[in-house]
User: Fold this.
Amino acid sequence: MDEIYMTRCIELARLGLGRTAPNPMVGAVVVHGDRIIGEGYHQKYGGHHAEVLAIEMVRNKALLSESTLYVSLEPCCHYGKTPPCTNLIIENKIPRVVIGTADPFDAVAGKGIARLRSSGCEVIVGVLKEQCRQLNKRFFTFHEKKRPYVILKWAQTADGFIDTERLPSAEKKPTWITSEKLRVLVHKWRAEEPAILVGTNTALKDNPRLNVRDWSGPSPLRIVIDRNLSLHSRQNLLDNSQPTWVINDKQEKSVQNTHYIRLTFDKDLFRHIFDMLYHKNIQSIIIEGGRKILQSIIDDNMWDEARVFVGTQFFGKGIRAPEIPPPKPVSQIIIGMESFFCFKNQ
Assistant:
């Protein structure tokens, strides 16, 4: 039964995807006997935590002293945007708390569990632990590895190319490999992550906007690597429509929504970028760059997930798709005539 109720916590938590960062997604359920009498999830950053909403939903508060609280992540025990959830649990005399996984955040990190146990509460930890960790893969990677969760994304032809060899005089637009419906899915992904990155060549050849015009939700922070400041003011990425970082080795300045950030371009460039994102509290990023950027991140083993579309076209020649070493993809989905593969870096 504990796993059944924890599954419900995970289902609820997922409803907050894209809206809770830098906080984790959390779901909570209050069970009295064999009946759910309250449930909630963390809906947005700065809003009430899941435990608070679940307890508030219980009409007869006297039942709380006879109930079990299920929560996908360890309750907080510190003052942040909201008061500690452990205090609320103790005040309502909830005798049993079942937790999916401990919180890696230094301000919590087992302290919430210890606080509940010291008050006399029975605490069980680790129910569906791996599923709860996967739910908050961005949050755990950020706090344990001190860098954002890195998602690589590209589309390749049936014969393994991501682009044709295009002349500088060619029209500045993407070489589409997949269909319109898959581009909608990509825009949905963009709304779920706080940042997105491309390189100079992608910006010059495709002139992308990197927004979510085909989906609802916030557009991500745009990051473009432009070492020599080759982009001109007419590029879509420099239109000031959303916050944009231009990583270069020439200058530091800001022009409205566009911020030029000077970094050292060496073999550790992406470590510098990811470290900067970490200190800006940005927990995840999508990399939509060309082969050079994608392969560099793969070779440096600084990626967590790769989302790869395979279309039906054959280019015969062009720019080869990045190569991911074993293991095999963890999932494969056929969408119409096209395929989607998801790889996880173990």
